[in-house]
Amino acid sequence: KNSYTLRIMETLRPLSDFFSAINNDFRISSTHIAIYVSLLHYRRDKGFINPIEAFGRDIAALAKLSSVNTYHKCIQELADYGYIRYVPSFKKNQGSKIFFFEY
Questions:
Q1: What is the C-alpha to C-alpha distance for residues 12 and 24, in angstroms, rounded to an integer?
Q2: Residue 69: what are its φ and ψ, rounded to 5°?
Q3: Global pTM?
Q4: Are 14 and 99 in contact (CB under 8 A)?
Q5: How far apart are the first and last CA of the chain?
Q6: Are 19 and 12 in contact (CB under 8 A)?
Q7: Within the chain, how many helices (H) and strands (E) appear?
């Protein structure tokens, strides 16, 4: 396989791993999935750093959510369910930290 194919596979692995992890988790909704996919997209744009620092309004917009409250509820649930580690900042000029786990 060429380097481009390998790079694509590495880029998609976290998403594939997430879908495998949630396969039998009835608590996960399409909103959780939209947020997680948006977080991965945001992370890719930041050079695959871990953790990322992001503002809820930015991720909510990427996930096409109409309410930042929905974002906060679902990202906290993703953390509570063990899919990410979420450290809210509560500061207007600093984003919350989101840590990704390797599956």
A1: 20
A2: -60, -40
A3: 0.89
A4: no
A5: 24
A6: no
A7: 4, 3
